[in-house]
Predict the structure.
Amino acid sequence: MNVRRLIPVTATAVAVSLGLVTLSACGGSSTAADNKNGDGADKLNVIASFYPMQYLAEEIGGDKVAVTPLTKPGVEPHDLELKPKQTAELSDADLIVYLKGLQPAVDEAVKQSGAKATVDATSLTKLESHGTGAGGHEHGEGEEHGDEHGHAEKEEAGHEGHGHGHDEAGSDPHVWLDPVKYAEIAKGVGKALEKADPDNAATYQKNTDTLVGKLDGLDTAFKNGLKNTTTKTFITTHSAFGYLAERYGLEQEGISGVDPESEPSPARIKQLQKIAKEDKVSTVFFETLASDRTARTLAADTGLKTDVLDPLEGITDKSKGSDYIEVMQSNLDALKKALGAK
């Protein structure tokens, strides 16, 4: 499969240094006395912007850290608005783990806080630019679609100007959906924890190695599971799966671009109907944290099935799994079924 990549955005250098104290896991302010682990040492207080960053901090930090997520379960992270108390307490964090370009409110709050102990996940791997389509189609309508990929991009998808989507140069922030890139980020977060808490560096290194091993196994499962399929194209409401598509030779067709709540144009719907027919698409995917109305309407109009493909921006009781690994395995199962894996 010839998967066409757009120009990667060069990663910036990560700056990590030791900070002070922040929120406890229950969301209130804490003191050192509030955060004692079993051996009597103070826990490192970490603020994580949303679930994928929280998962890394918890898996790598183990019982040596107290992790406070800024985004509560069930909240669409793009729409997050921070309370004044949350913003104020960022400056007291031992470590802030966030992903620049996904949540403008968090980016601005971190900047204003002056916190030095921060890890921007986008500085730990290379970002790329993805539009509504990732992987590239040639359906012979490049003039109508408006770009070299033959697809509706920014104007038709309506994903510009929504205030959440992309870092500089239009880079796609959804890197955690590629297990390989997520493993790169995990290693960087592990190094940051080691620097912030040298006394427990060996624990963080061990936990990092264990997590990277799990992600390597997940990568292998995706490679093997999607190696031989009837079609390589999948349609999804949220164009969050560009990295995953490129990693495994698939072609993502997003209905609404990177903004899960934006409305596609009639022209885009027409294009998707054509692509679905030509590429033998069987399923339109929707997600758990955004409306499924558009996906179900498109599916009904084209006689397609619907299913969940979870962008893993948060874990709720609707999630098909209790953590990142389990939900990604559910995503793999859904893709194998939809794509006709053999």
User: Anything to note?
Assistant: The longest helix spans residues 201-225. The two ends are 16 Å apart (CA to CA).
